[in-house]
Amino acid sequence: MSVRLFESELKVMDLLWKEGDLPAKEIAQRLKEQINWSKTTTYTVLKKCVEKKAVLRTDPGFLCSPLISRKEVQKAATKDFIDKIYGGSKDLLLASLLGQQELTPEDIARLKKLAEELK
């Protein structure tokens, strides 16, 4: 499943990924403490996550459960980024990343190992 999430939706998802299933009321309380969101804002963002099928909300207590993993979201966001910025070319992305900084021999060794593992 490929779901595009906005920064606000990622805040809700991050809480669910870290804590597991939580009632909507608890999510609202925690986000009020963390980033000063109102209950209305949290419930609006939760509703959008439910509409996108990223969150399942069940009764009683409006228990919210993540339907997608952090890894799935990262994979979709990475693909979108590569498609938009590098025309879908992973090698251009990698060349850009590598060209931005000096690599230590240890960095190069880790990259070689990673490349071998991906074969």
Q: Describe it for me?
A:
- The protein has 119 residues and is mainly alpha-helical.
- Helix content is 66%, strand content 8%.
- It contains six helices and three strands.
- It has helices at residues 7-19, 24-35, 39-51, 70-86, 90-99, 105-118; strands at residues 22-23, 55-58, 63-66.
- It has a three-stranded antiparallel beta sheet with strand order 1-3-2.
- Helix 1 crosses helix 3 and helix 2 (24-35) crosses helix 3.
- The two termini are 25 Å apart.
- 16% of the residues are buried.
Give the topology, please.
Blueprint: H1 7-19, E1 22-23, H2 24-35, H3 39-51, E2 55-58, E3 63-66, H4 70-86, H5 90-99, H6 105-118
Antiparallel strand pairs: 1-3, 2-3
Helix pairs in contact: 1-3, 2-3
